[in-house]
């Protein structure tokens, strides 16, 4: 430890270095650390001067790690995670609570997890559940969380992955909205669809719906566009239109009948939804149990929806995909 103290201008330099690499820029690291960007630059300059090597190449696209910087970051990030794990264990022993952090979408949290919170508390009475919420598409690193929901191929060199289900999407709406469209069709009135869309969605699902009138012409229809998929699903629940429902998010509402299918067949994208975590950050027993519970509940949802709508063959699709 004496050598370590001699080699560093201060231990704070390590926290600044780690934040700069993880955030990808000195400016973002400064915001996280609640200091100015010049202060971050000065601290990193002092660290480089003290070590006698360059840790970053300052290039137009942002700072890039040198070979020395890569060596330091690899060991430092692993050490920080080990220290964090020890502190969590101490806190759990002191409070009797076990903390698990999930990186999931706001939509999954709102529409899948929240309806199950009572059951979750019953099964995990000492669990302190925390969230890194993503309003847009699932993505980003899982370095700072226990588990992240991601659309990935499976395990890789850094991550372990547990399959939840293949990505299956289905046009959905409320029963009242579907009945209104049927009634307008019987009355011979136009029934252009209202499409509840997600901005920058892939795929653009508006093309999956036609706004046909009884004379065979296509109506213009209209749309509601939101940047948060949780609001898209909420609008569909409130009868505001048709949306595309990711099965891993809307399965609770389909199972209970608050949402119903608005098309004849599901769309299988070929992607697969997993719960992933860093291999160098092994799951604690409570996190593994929570992961397994999410997977079991999701598969129970699929089985129940498959029984309600056997024409879609959802259980078969989940086995084959």
TrEMBL record:
Its BP terms in the Gene Ontology are: DNA-templated transcription
The HTH lysR-type domain covers 9-66
SUPFAM superfamilies on file: Periplasmic binding protein-like II (SSF53850), Winged helix' DNA-binding domain (SSF46785)
User: Keyword NADP: yes or no?
Assistant: no
Gene3D superfamilies according to UniProt: Periplasmic binding protein-like II, Winged helix-like DNA-binding domain superfamily/Winged helix DNA-binding domain
Q: Which InterPro entries match?
A: LysR-type_TF_proteobact-type, LysR_HTH_N, LysR_subst-bd, WH-like_DNA-bd_sf, WH_DNA-bd_sf
PROSITE patterns (UniProt xref): HTH_LYSR
Kindly state which keywords UniProt assigns to this record, in alphabetical order.
Answer: DNA-binding, Transcription, Transcription regulation
Annotated signal sequence is none
Q: Name one GO molecular function term.
A: sequence-specific DNA binding
Q: Does the keyword Transcription regulation apply?
A: yes
Q: Which family does it belong to?
A: Belongs to the LysR transcriptional regulatory family.
- By what name is this protein known? Transcriptional regulator, LysR family
Please name the source species.
Answer: Tistlia consotensis USBA 355
Organism classification, top ranks?
A: Bacteria, Pseudomonadati, Pseudomonadota, Alphaproteobacteria, Rhodospirillales
């Amino acid at each position: 430890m004496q050598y370590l103290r001699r080699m560093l201008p201060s231990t704070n330099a390590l926290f600044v270095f780690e934040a700069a690499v993880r955030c990808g820029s000195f400016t973002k690291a400064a915001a996280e650390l609640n200091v100015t960007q010049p202060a971050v630059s000065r601290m990193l300059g002092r660290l480089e001067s003290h070590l006698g090597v360059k840790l970053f190449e300052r290039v137009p696209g942002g700072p890039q790690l040198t070979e020395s910087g890569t060596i330091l970051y690899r060991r430092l990030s692993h050490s920080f995670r080990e220290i964090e794990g020890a502190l969590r264990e101490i806190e759990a022993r002191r409070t009797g609570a076990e903390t698990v952090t999930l990186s999931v979408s706001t939509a999954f949290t709102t529409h899948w997890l929240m309806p199950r919170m009572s059951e979750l508390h019953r099964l995990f009475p000492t669990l302190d559940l925390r969230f890194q919420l993503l309003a847009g598409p699932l993505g980003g690193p899982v370095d700072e969380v226990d588990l992240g929901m991601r659309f990935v191929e499976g395990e890789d060199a850094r991550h372990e992955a547990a399959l939840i289900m293949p990505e299956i999407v289905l046009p959905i709406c409320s029963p009242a909205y579907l009945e209104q469209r049927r009634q307008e069709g019987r009355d011979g009135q136009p029934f252009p669809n209202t499409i509840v869309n997600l901005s920058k969605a892939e795929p653009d699902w508006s093309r999956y719906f036609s706004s046909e009138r009884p004379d065979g012409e296509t109506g213009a229809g209209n749309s509601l566009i939101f940047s948060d998929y949780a609001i898209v699903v909420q609008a569909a629940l409130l009868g505001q239109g048709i949306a595309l429902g990711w099965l891993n998010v809307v399965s609770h509402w389909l199972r209970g009948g608050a949402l119903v299918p608005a098309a004849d067949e599901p769309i299988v994208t070929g992607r697969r939804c997993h719960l992933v975590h860093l291999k160098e950050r092994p799951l604690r027993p409570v996190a593994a149990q929570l992961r397994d519970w999410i997977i079991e509940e999701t598969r129970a949802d699929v089985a129940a929806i498959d029984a309600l709508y056997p024409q879609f063959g959802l259980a078969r699709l989940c086995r084959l995909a």
